[in-house]
Amino acid sequence: MKKANTEDGIKSLYKVMRVLDCFSVRDDVLSVSEIARRLDIPQSTAHRLLSSMRSAGLLEQDRRRGGYRLGLKLFSLGSTVLASMELHRISVGPMEELHRITRMSVHLALFDGQGVLVVRKIGSDKELSTSLNLMEQAPAHCTGVGKAVLAYQPKEVIDRVFSAELIRFTGNTIVDRCAFDREMEAIVGRGYSVDNEEHNIGIRCVAAPIFNESGTAFAAISVSGTAWELMPGAVEEISKTVKLHAQDLSARLGFPGDAATPA
Predict the structure, then answer these.
(1) HSE (CB half, 13 Å, CA atoms) of 130?
(2) What's the pLDDT score for residue 83?
(3) Using CA atoms, how far apart are residues 77 and 223, in angstroms rounded to an integer?
């Protein structure tokens, strides 16, 4: 009986994780029928599961749009995870220094396997925010932080990103696989990535990957500004500073050497 209860608990946990995986930046509110269809389960089963998750604070009902969205309990748990992460603790000084040098926005982001999660931001002098902590999801294929990490991932990770329908945010967004592979090779060659108005028109971003002690690129740090602030000459100069700060963070995390090529 005890083994059966354990197996049922594991199955229930698996179902909860599958529900959570249905949500994204694009699909922030989903109806019962939409989730049932995505999980290929009866609508009545989906309704019971969602009700239980809402009672636990994992989901909230959005009555205005007629569906469910991720609950604040997840934000609270995520904040606890961030507070315990060494990268989040040691990034404060380097990010503030990078901001003082460039006077532009500085971002720290983690790669979640599909997209990136911005976990810390210091706004530019033109922005009201300073040293703002936040959790904001962003696509990986067209952002500086995302491309900086993707360039050092195995081929199957890139395949997974391209298995979804990629959004062309601007005319500069790279959605062709061959062109994207060439971009990844260029990033590895120079050690930094450039978001050349690929996510937002008028905004450029320079980013460099951060490696953990096992040599895995799992995060990135970036500087972003307007296109006229980050002209090609300025990009090349600022990239040196961004790379140095990324390398410093990698070394503090135990990464022993230079950036490795993708596995």
Answers:
(1) 8
(2) 59
(3) 28
In angstroms, what CA-CA distances link 147 with 68, 158, 218?
Answer: 31, 10, 11
What percent of the chain has pLDDT above 70?
86
Joined tokens for residue 60 = 């909230």
Q: Is the pLDDT score of 13 beyond 80?
A: yes
Q: Give Cα separations from 231 to 68, 96, 194 (angstroms).
A: 43, 23, 11
- Sign of the Cα torsion 102, 108, 109, 110 reads positive
How far is residue 110's CA from residue 191's CA, in Å, rounded to a whole number? 18
HSE-CB for 188 with a 13 A CA cutoff: 16
Indicate the pairing of strand 105-111 with strand 193-196: unpaired
Query: Does the structure show a pLDDT above 60 at 230?
Result: yes
Output the CA angle 157-263-94, nearest 5 degrees.
Answer: 85
Report the percent of the chain where pLDDT is more than 90: 58
Distance from the Cα of residue 106 to its chain's centroid: 15
pLDDT at position 138 over 70: yes
pLDDT above 90 for 66: no
User: Mind listing the domains of the chain with CATH numbers?
Assistant: 2-71 (1.10.10.10), 85-252 (3.30.450.40)
In the DSSP assignment, the letter for residue 114 is S
Task: Name the β-bridge partners of 13.
Answer: none
